[in-house]
Amino acid sequence: LSLFKTTFYTPSNLVRRGGILCILFLFFGLGSAVGQIATITANDNAASENPLDTGEYTVSLDVVNGTGSAITVAYTVTGTAVSGSDYVALAGSVDIPDGQQTATITLTPVDDTDVEADETVVVTLDPGAGYTVGSPSSDTVTISSEDVAPDPVATITANDNAASENPLDTG
């Protein structure tokens, strides 16, 4: 009685089963970029216009980039803040160099005089070559403004500027 089954594969069996691809990937190191998972985290999720305080996102791979060149991770930017007027425009991609596992995206607010509520900048990873998008795939930095509305001023205007006690005239 045998508990184990020994199977010998011929090259034609491996090709039919997709095994030749596995051997090529392992032998030539091509598997190092396949299946890498990219995620994003806002490790500094609060930014402000004045005093200037930047926000920061970190894009990470699940393993160190061993491809021999940088992996470019693409992203889309959305949110309530406006690129170019509320913050310095972001590039839309970040490079993770060979031998590294992370790269950062710095969000720099623009100090304007607009009175505005807190605004958000959402960065969402896009699929691309050499990686797949994992979870979390997006994160948010909130920009706060120091600009406040001036105190309201009340103005009173008399419609009838003449008043008297006798005869009574309230004006």
Q: Can you walk through the features of this model?
A:
With about 170 residues, this protein is mainly beta. About 10% of the residues lie in helices and about 30% in strands. It contains two helices and nine strands. The chain has helices at about 10-15, 20-30, and strands spanning about 35-45, 45-50, 55-60, 70-80, 95, 100-105, 120-125, 130-135, 140-145. The strands form two sheets. A five-stranded mixed β-sheet has the order 2-9-7-4-5, with no helix packed on it. It is rod-shaped.
List keywords for this structure.
171 residues; 2 helices; 10% helix; 5-stranded mixed β-sheet
Layout of strands and helices, then pairs:
Blueprint: H1 11-17, H2 19-28, E1 37-44, E2 46-48, E3 55-61, E4 71-78, E5 93-96, E6 102-107, E7 119-125, E8 132-133, E9 138-144
Parallel strand pairs: 1-8, 2-9
Antiparallel strand pairs: 1-3, 3-6, 4-5, 4-7, 7-9
